[in-house]
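ASSEMBLY PREDICTION REQUEST
Request ID: AP-0331
Submitted by: J.K., bench scientist
Number of chains: two
Total residues: 517
Priority: normal
Notes: Please return the full assembly, not individual chains.
Input sequences:
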Amino acid sequence: MRMFNLSALLLCIGLLSGCIGDDIIMDTVEENLRISASIDTLGVGDTYQFEAIYTNNVGQEESTNIDWSSSDENLLRIDAQGLATGIAQGSVSVTANVNLADKTVTDVFDLHIADNTVVAAPQNRNGALRTTSSYVLQGNFVLRPDGDDLVLSFDDSYRASSSLPGLYLYLTNNPQTTSGAYEIGKATSFSGSHTYTIPGGDATLEQYTHVLFFCKPFNVKVGDGAFEE
Amino acid sequence: MQRFIILLFCLLVLNIQWAEAGGWPQPKGNGYFKLYQWWVVADQHFTDAGRIDPNVTSGIFNTSLYAEYGFTDRITAVANIPLFSRAYFNNTISGTTGATLIPGESINSIGDIDLGIKYGLITKGPVAISATVLFGLPLGNERGGSEGNLQTGDGEFNQMLQLDAGTGFKIGKLPAYANAYAGINNRTEGFSDEFRFGIEAGVNLFNNRLWAIGRLYGIQSLQNGDLNQGINSTSVFANNSEHLTFSPEFAYSITDKWGVSASFGTALSGRIIFANPSYSVGVFFNLR
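STATUS: Completed
Returned structure:
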């Protein structure tokens, strides 16, 4: 009976000591505001609806009041909803502000006012990977539109450790966590150039600030790369 | 003969787990049974470069039955059966907002079972040598949790051939022994095969009541498996895991048949495996 009790005690140790606890990570990032506009030139008398993405101090997209302003009201007027109207020819800056309790987050977009509106071709977004762990991760990448889809390409300089089980890629506004990130999928290549296709509608070109490499089974960040501004 | 008896006693009293069964088979009709709890809780792991990186705190708890039974004086059946295996990882909490970013999860199941036969090649003389064939049955859960990243088993059927050599001696008046083993573990499902090795030595203290044992053992991957993108296993089940571990143990005989043991293991080096110490406590019974 005594040994039975000891055996039961062993089982209890297993059950009780295996309780799920909490691991706290520091995931604070700078608030960010990005004007997303596909226009080079606005025609005099034409209008254009500006939009901006605001992400808070943990990188989550958040709806908030954005103050829109023009650097020269004689050239461009813009209302509180970001609807701009070309007034006269010249160069002007559109500023978006989000006022927080202790600071103001700002983004500025430059454009020309001319006779006709000229839509800009979407700009590819570039970046370079860096490891934030002891695992190898390096290389340059480009995010570009491809029809309705996005394509994330890595060049020949790309290297990643193949030793990790379950290495995954994400697009994120907070490189400290996969929370709120868009999961591209499991890494399919560990050296050289290759691409990943992101279906249209899943993400937009300007939506995220970083590429994140994360080992899902170990729940550990491997590295990241910021898109150049 | 006295030396052989000492060696035999070692075998019966030791905290025997699979790799530490030693070079001596059980005599016919005799057996050794041990119910033990083994666990590791890890917030760091060895990387592929052998460095230590942090990870979300994860744990594995196995309540297992280890058994040896001598069918003949040379042939011993051995089994290691994780009756209850629990794996978990912690919640990941935002230090900024306090929100749960990744909820912790756990799974409970039976673990992978090892069954095998030990054959005594040389059972008399100064050195006892035995050969063991082991079959690892993948009865644990290799893809538990919402993301398939919790395991109580590796999901592969492996076969291991192991040779053990042991000898008994005295340190002063104290009985002592030493054992060494080496084995090849053939793994399936894309896992790399492994070379396993170990040495151990023990000395008997306090009138045959207490055995103090030191072990040094390791696993070397042969790196002949698939790349890890097809494998989701981590913790102690990852592919191409390697380690060199030091593990002291104490086994105390309460009666002639019953006893208790406790040990811990700390990896001196490793690759793709948890880096925190593991612990084990158990109750053993000698059938004579």
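REVIEWER COMMENTS: The longest strand of chain A covers residues 104-114.
SIGN-OFF: pending second reviewer
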